[in-house]
Prior knowledge:
A: 612 residues, B: 319 residues, mainly alpha, globular, disordered N terminus
Amino acid sequence: MRLRRASLVMLSVILVFVLAACGGGNNTTANSGKNTSTEKPTSTATNAPAEETAAPDDRALDHSKPLKLTVFSTTANYAGPQTGWFAKIIKDKFNIEMDIVASNLTGGDTKISAMMASGDLGDIIIFGDDKNHYPNAIKGKLLLDWTQDGLLDKYGKDIGSTFPKAIEKAKVAFGGGSSVFGIGNNVASNPSGPSEGKDMTWGPDLRFDLYQQIGAPEISKIEDYLPVLKKMQELEPKNEQGKKTYAFSMWSDWDGNYKMTLAKQFANMMGYDEIPDTAVYVKADEEKYYDFLSDDSWYMKSLKLYFEANQMGLVDPDSMTQKFDDVVAKFKDGRLLFSWFPWLGAANYNTPERTAEGKGFALVPFKDELMYSTGFNVYGGNGIIAIGAKAKEPARIMEFINWMYTPEGAMISAGSGTAVPNGPKGLTWDMDASGKPVVTDFGWKAYADQQNTQVPAEYGGGDYYYGSNQMNFSFVVPAMVNPDNKEPYDHNLWTTTLERNPSKLDSDWRAKMGVLTPKEYFEKNNLLAVAPQGFTGKEPLMMDKTLEQKNKQIGTVIQQISWKMVFAKDQAEYDKLNKEMHDKVNGLGYAEVMDFSIKKAEELFEARKSVK
Amino acid sequence: MGVPSGELLPSVDPVHRSRWKMKNKHKLFFMAFPFLVVTFIFYYLPISGWIYAFYDFIPGIPLSDTPYVGLKWFKTIVSNPTQTAEVLRVLKNTLAMSSLGLITSIFPVIFAIMLTEIKSGWYRKLVQTLTTIPNFISWILVYALAFSLFSVDNGVITHILVQLGIVDEGYNFLASSSNIWVTMIVWYWWKSLGWGAILYLAAIAGIDQELYEAVEVDGASRFRKIWHITIPGLIPTFFVLLLLSIGNLVNNGMEQYFSFQNAMNKDSIEVLDLYVYNIAFANNFPFATAVSMLKSVVSVILLFAANTLSKMVRDESII
């Protein structure tokens, strides 16, 4: 008995030691973590003068050692090392290699939370929006302050001189007035007009050849698309490989922020857009908003539309279980007839061979379509690029990010993610004798069929698509005019491009619509709602933790039941689910979320005044 | 202990040598020590994470900078009827899946008995290997397999069924919520049947062969032998495993349900573990921690209850 007690005492003593050791270990790592994060910049600061003596220009950094960066992108759709032509350019120029971590592919928010909890977000971090994770990462001291040791002044000069307003916003909104923790995407230097390129962000695009074959019936409201699509499906029930065609093929992996992602697009075609993570949709150019669960909301009307489409056999039954990539493949194979976005249908289906035959996706607007357009944003968009607190060699990272905001960087990859980037100079585009940029023949091939175009080895090899900048972050807005040659960055808007021989599809479309580009159609008919991109000059409103919990739960309920409603068996089940959704969200505190959402809308209206 | 004491002597320092009679105790203690450390690190240390339930914790921000909120998140569970209904729904799924698991836990027993009754050696080994292999496949891969079998577009089985005219083209099995509990348990046993039978096979091998010979002399048939010797021989093992699984009633893991969940079936397969995971990574760690704390408490209560019951009924217990 005595011995037993002795061993028990000993056991507990040992456990206490282990506990102390573990606790101690944690503390020391935490401390050393903090030390490195504060010391790192100082050490580079002390390095910099040393280099200054070696090279007279204080911006010249030593690139002799390869720098391998972990890029944590919450928007990327590709994970792994950056390869191909973009990798080659940054390797040659900065001796930088990127390894991309994509939360979209590994659990979404789960991955982001896990990375946040680990205390190390990587070297470069890309946030899809500036709502939750970004401010939390700042609070958690996970991001590097660019103003520390003059990092931004020394190595980010071009950002500061071309986009001073973006820096101002970073300081006021997120940096307590003085620090800069990140900078927005799609920045512009001129403040008015629509910022899109030749195409707008939304369509709707239909298979134009089939649409014409059925007599191109006029479409006056969104519901009119269904009978048209049905006729088109009857005309081409199977694709070339004999697989069934559908009008709508959806995917759920982009759901989040409160909704089934694909049920908001029609709101955008009516001049409205959501405020992320809230329950309202706001008008682009007026102080109007609506509750998106109300009966007259375009979200609810879209669900109804998809439900009816499903009843008509127009919806791909794999929609709920497939991923975005599966849908892209279906577009490529010619199995789909409707595309919400020009960058989805046309970008994947319209190969040169097909467009020469007149086949392809093109804009077929409805009569009262009012296209939502994002205005040029001198403050930068809501996407954020930041540097991790534990980043190695922040000076070289800063230099790299700065370059992406210069004309040279923008000419190569402006629009990466949403638009086809121009690619390497000399391969896909070049300057002609008069000093104007012009797309090469290889360029047209690569832009039209990105995944099947092999890039020559001296430009990095691989196919054009995976060789693009896979961070999925658009630094400079593609429609912005390049000060060096007075042409926009986007190759679709170059004079040489617009004057180029159109394909059969293009000429058919131009003949019917009487305009050259979709953008021109909306501009000419005065069907654009341009949202001014302003800034209140204050820290953004944020939900408290309790409301956030309610909001997330409500969001999950809405997403889940939305899908069920689309695939409901009949009208009765649809109505039952609709009621269930409203009951559930009301029970979970929808009213409170709505109150907050309205405040957010008012904040937005105030922000817009800053650029009017 | 078969270890000769002399061998350990040199490593024992003089202080210990003087307290000679403690030696065996030490030896045993040090043998157990690594396991105690492992147990401590993996089972007791994580309990310190319970502290997050009392703060408005946000990943990335140190706890010292987060507001202390007391029992707020525990109260949230019953704060409003919809929330309570959600928790009850999840509990219902959990108990349903566990009960189905308990009822069907007789399957590996039957399977083990049938396996030992197979006389052809190579065939028995083949069956056993084929049924054990799925245990080593992760649930994510099982789902990938399910997707390739049942997707509308390229699913092998869907294709066959369509050809035979049994189902209408365009029926998405994976997005169907009908009989989802049964479907889940079928997938579960497809994966674990062979593995679950291993313990019973070992127990059967441990039954005294003389017993069989004795009843054979008495003229017992094959079925009688199973009924009167094999099954009674397996009952103790079965009960120990049953008790353990009752203790685990609320822990049915999340991997399977996580892989198979989608908008259609989530209502019916979101079990507690998955719910905790979904909530936590929707960025609410404190609430998820509160729920999982309650889960642990319930588990401990269930285990002791089952144990007491077993003591009363069979005069046998595991604790």
